Amino acid sequence: MESFVDRVEAHLEGVKFFSVGESEECDTCKEYGCCNEFSNSICDSCGTTLAGSRHAAHGVIDIDVEHFEVCVDCLMYHANGEVPEEEEEDIRGYVYEGIDDED
Description:
This protein is an alpha+beta fold. The chain has one domain. The chain contains four helices and four strands; from the N terminus they run αβαβββαα. Strands 1, 2, 3 and 4 form a four-stranded antiparallel sheet that branches. It is globular. It starts with a helix and ends in a 6-residue tail after the last helix.
């Protein structure tokens, strides 16, 4: 199974200068704010499909600043370098990778 960090690196390939938080220059942040308290949307950073809060982030692709919505795990990872604990990562791995049949 891919590690959390590997998933983040794969999803953000080609993105430069990634940071979390609201931007005064971002039209999406101006319209919707910096946090969606509950969302079923896929995390733009790690790809999790687990429902939960999504937080504003921004990155540069080519020369354009793009808006991203990230889960709490990615918020903490990008802000502080904190990686989710092994046990939690293993449980979430089913969501990232799909459920494998072990017959």
